[in-house]
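Internal ticket - ligand job 426, adenosine monophosphate:
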Amino acid sequence: MNVLVVGGGGREHALCWKIAVSPLCDKLYCAPGNAGIAAEAECVAIAADDVPRLVAFATDHAVDFVVVGPEAPLVAGLVDRLAEAGIKAFGPTGAAAMLEGSKGFLKDLCASYGIPTAEYGRFVDAGSAKSFVREAGAPIVVKADGLAGGKGVTIAKSVAEAEAAIDAIMVERILGPAGQSLVIEELLEGKEVSFFALVDGETVLPLAWAQDHKRAFDGDQGPNTGGMGAYSPAPGITRQLEAQVLSEIVRPTVRAMKEQGHPYKGVLYAGLMLTDDGPKLLEYNVRFGDPECQVLCVRLMSDLLPALIATSDGVLSALDLRWHDHAALTVVMATKGYPGPYRKGSKIGGLDAAAAMPDVVVFHAGTAAGPDGTILANGGRVLDITATGASIAEARARAYAAVDRIDWPEGFCRRDIGARASNGAG
Ligand code: AMP
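stdout (structure tokens):
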């Protein structure tokens, strides 16, 4: 098969790394890819959200199967356009991707089908949103309806903070069209966990549990980021909890989407809060988490490609995935300044020394090759130093030993990824 992976981050590097070793894969392309992905796939200079060019490339190069990494092309209907061109793909249609593409759509679906989530209201004007906030009081959560690259949620500690967030989104339009409408919801308290499953329209095949770290700095300080590290398995997740999440949240969602005429196919990533009243849904993502995908890929023993194809074909019930017993942990190395402004183009050394360590894989999240073959930082999140071990503590020690071999003065990482989990706490 000729396979095209869409995206150019660490998640897509991990997907390419797994797909490249599949006996089913003859030729692997990645658009746009990065300098690390170039070792696994032929990189094609097409942006991940350039739907017409991606469809044209897939058609011209006899691509049999497309694996879509990020949410933007999914919400923009890439899978639909590929289907029209007769090309199979992994990922939901644009209509099914609304689970992530519109928070209001998700909340209404939860309300209609009795899926546990935070109490909420939907608003299209700032005035009524503010009245609601004044009535409800703080703390309260203000969310832009559309895709906002992780910048659409404000946890407001005061009414004034919530009102400022409403003005920023609806009056100043800082998020553009993503802020045309708002969801305002109750603050949920508890432990936050992520659940991943493959869904083929009907059957739900749970993947391993993984946990990420969203804040930029040690001790969960600093601004929210795309994710500064992750580990798997997630301690404290019981079979009973998984069964409850499946029966109360994930399966009802999959049934609801089918009933509404938009069967969901792809990976479903549920952000959950474990509250005193049981697990509640915070959000869905319609793609793999980044960097959670990296730890899932190194723990997956089975061939990934047939699982992705079975998801697309609607035959997941015939499939079983096998996982390594070992734990995995990934540390994100980012350019200093991230998630704020940062400079591109700094030189990264020590990559070969890090990758040569046993049980270590270096995934590239944002790199480019320099003219002399050096590797240059080309984004905010730049490397995902990933290691496996008998326990999270062992994987963690290996990952940080590899991090210490990277020679990149312009980069930084958190030093506490998986620290609590290493001691048995979640
Ligand atoms: P979302 O994009 O909806 O997942 O929101 C991003 C992050 O904001 C989540 O991962 C949570 O940490 C936090 N969050 C979102 N909604 C709530 C809520 N209702 N209560 C508490 N935290 C929330």
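Auto-summary: The longest strand covers residues 221-232. The pocket of adenosine monophosphate is lined by residues 118, 141, 143, 153, 155, 185-188, 192, 271, 282-283 (CB under 6 Å).
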